[in-house]
Amino acid sequence: MQYEFDWGMLLRSPYFGWIVEGVLTTFHLALLSWVLALTLGIVIGIFRVTNSRALRVIGTAYVELFRNIPLIVQLFLWLYVAPQLLPTETRLWWNRLDYVPYWTAVIGISFYTASRVAEQIRSAILAIPPGQFKAALSTGLTTTQTYRFVIVPYALRIILPALTSEFLTIFKNTALALTIGVVEITATTRKIEAWSFRGIEAYTVASLTYAATTILVVVFMSWLERRYYIPGLIRREREAA
Amino acid sequence: MPDPIVRVEDVGLRFDKFTALDGVSLSVETGQCIVICGPSGSGKSTLLRCINGLERFQAGEVFVDGVRVRDNTDLPKLRRGIGMVFQHFELYPHMTVLENITLAPIRAKGVPRAQAEKLARDYLERVGIADQADKYPGRLSGGQQQRAAIARALALEPKVMLFDEPTSALDPEMIAEVLYVMRDLARGGMTMLVVTHEMGFAREVADEVIFMDRGRVVERSGVKEFFTAPRADRTKEFLNKILVKF
After folding, report:
1. Is residue A4 part of a domain?
2. E-only strand ranges, B50-97
3. N or C, which end of chain A has less CB nearby within 10 Å?
């Protein structure tokens, strides 16, 4: 193979500026989508296990709708189809908005991921002994307080390892946003390649961005798992040995 | 005679085809300690859960401190006046003992945190585990966990305490430490309704014993009478079985 590497080009203008912007876009797209997905996922997950039939139906419909359509299709639906369904005034407002693709990606990715988070929350809640609900209710807490102070914090601790995977997935799924015109790090890489014909250098940047970040996330989450592990209930590996 | 603090009138509850409670009536006066015993499936625990609205009954009426328990009752408010202790403790495992106890006073009753913590430590002192306040329930023995759960219920400063087989999940050595706490409570004048098979406790502490079978109250009598001269045949049969003599 005759290929002269030129890693230095990555630090030259305009490529370096593009990379910084691309990485930052990936980061805040992922973080914003994650915060929304987690919040919405917790609410939908609770809907799926409540005593209220109406809420259960809403929760189930949400999960089945959003987890059964490929994310990339959902992104196209949000970009091309959803605005058509808006009232004219609202549609014009939306179309005049700056960064429409970016906000479309935030909505698409977070709504999709929320359906997955909801299922994990649901399975965690089902794993919590029913006596916990009875105990909390018996002390005079309302149902909402019982979820907020007892059930959800307990459930989140159970599914922390699964949430780690979920965050890694949402982080990598942001790459799909390039299909609707968001210039995140993968799109930036393609642009650099198209301008410079230096594909190896360019894609190395994207790969390293993803890999380095996910490794940092894994380290952070394992710290979080230790911090929030439940003594005597969730087994630590060291205890298991 | 003042109004009883708990009044259960002809309560019936069915799960599908199974009749859990079949016309149960009873009343508890302030300061009384009443033990409910009977074979499993006789409706004892279900009865307790009807009293604080954790279970919906289909027939009859329940009054606690003059408040009628039914669908449109302000259940959180009702439950703040009723402490409940469970067979499997049901402490929240992700909170320290102190947090377990202060949660409801702070969130349900609006007690300031500092005051709630002081109250919690007082009750922990009273159940003899003041030194365990900052530990997680998983680090405590079964007996300590149940005493923490009793402290959690007491921190509501309830008018009546319901105990649902509080020693059934405990090792023999730990049963005594929990029963001592309950005995002291009863002697301190707490109104208590206790589902248990600890006949020693019933004999020493209870004012009256209720025997239930198949969702009905078979017999209710004073302690002495219950153990020495039970009226119903079913009660005699039950006592013969559980008071085994070798």
Report:
1. no
2. 59-64, 67-68, 82-85
3. N
